[in-house]
Amino acid sequence: MRSVPDDARPVLPTAEDEVAAAGSELIGGPAGRHALIGISWWTPVRVIALVALGMFALGMAQKAPCYGGDWFESATSQYTHACYSDIPHLYRSRGFAGGVVPYFDRIPDDLSGGMAYLEYPVLTGLFMQVAAWLTPDGGVQDEARMYWMVNAGMLMACAAVIAVCVARTHRRRPWDALLVALAPAFALTATINWDLFAVALTAAAMLLWSRSRPLAAGVLLGLATAAKLYPLLLLGPLLLLCLRAGRLRAFAATFGGALGAWLLVNVPVMLSTSGGLHVREGWTRFYTFSEERAVDLGSFWLIISQRTGDPLKDANTYAVALMVLACAGVAALALCAPRRPRLAQLAFLVVAAFAVTNKVYSPQYVLWLVPLAALARPRWRDFLIWQATQVLYFVGVWMYLAYLNGGNAHRGLPPDGYQLAIVIHLLGTLYLCALVVRDILVPERDVVRRDGSDDPSGGVLDGAADRVVLGAAHDRLYAARQGFHGGPPPGGGAGGHGPVEWGTARGTERAS
Hints:
- The chain has 2 domains: about 45-60 and about 150-450, no CATH class; about 465-510, no CATH class.
- About 60% of the residues lie in helices and about 0% in strands.
- The chain has helices at about 15, 20-25, 45-60, 65-75, 75-80, 85-95, 110, 120-135, 140-170, 180, 185-190, 195-210, 215-225, 235-245, 250-270, 280-290, 300-310, 315-335, 345-355, 365-375, 380-405, 415-440, 470-480; strands at about 270, 280, 500-505, 510.
- Mean pLDDT is about 85; it is low at about 1-5 and about 485-510.
């Protein structure tokens, strides 16, 4: 039997997480020290991919009442069965059933409901169009059901990619990806919209970054931004961490790759040559729609609006201001923390801040956060608490829509109940954010770093010496608490490069 060194064996969650250990009793209990994990065909990555596919299939089965007719035959059943999806409805209302080409063709007025052009980024529009090409001909409703099924198949592939990428991002912690594969909110919301495509590209970008391939990571991050706006936010944490570690060349490669890939995808659609170069109206629709959109479901802005009767027409300005403040807080945390934060931690915080402060917090936005949460804080208890709040909101939002669309019957959740559901799911996200912040400020609580690691998924940042650090008093306090006298511990502070001298005047360190 081939032996595996201890420092090369995967970290088993059942050995360090009491909830994982208790849950493992369903399949025979925690694995023993000599278990042949990763040697047989059943490697962690393969197991996780199969579990992710199984959970995705369960999520599809949950949509069965709607696939059988509720999407089109009942105004409220698609909400009371919690099986609503944008995909079949937009097949007709965005012109795919009639052969409308996204961004180039105007959607007929009798279909669009006032939406002249597709309101999605270019790569998502391409994803939708490819699914339309693959949808067999038939009646419009039958085609719409098949369109959902085709999209579900493509999104299932995205789910598998996400699970595999998360499993491979941290070489010694592949089992953390089970948090993604088994996340109930992930399965329930996977086929509401097309977000999984952007999430898959983002997960692949983070995998390539962890392999110290910043240019390739930037290309995938640019493609992800061409599919959804939120991946752009990851450039902020990358800039801050590269600045602190003195690895700005790596950030420049990532930024250049992202910009080049985004332009390559968008410019052909953005510009028209008929009558001279000008920005195409169809391309701008996503950006103007995002700016003009009123406060909507899931956001605390909706609670304020409903409670006060004020439509909050300036909510966009307020949301941007709050997001700027949140980003300033993340920046201070990145540059002042006693040890350089891990990339996944800052990425989770900034994306969560965007979701919480946004004018709308759709139920599928949880898909953005699940892979980042699994990498940022792989602790089952807290992850499941957060997931419970998201599942509660998933049910609450559909019951609220059933109440609004049920006529005089008012079956479902009234506004007061729905507002409570919003508060709970926002508090759930903020709870996980608070734990991540605590892990950053008190690094010995970070489960990923308990084996002496710095940032195993940080690529060129892993073990790098700090060059720009603010708030040296925090470092001295941390060093005193840990019994160090010359600076922070190896990895993240000194980066494992020997003794360092901390310059309190400039906030920099100099390797001796």
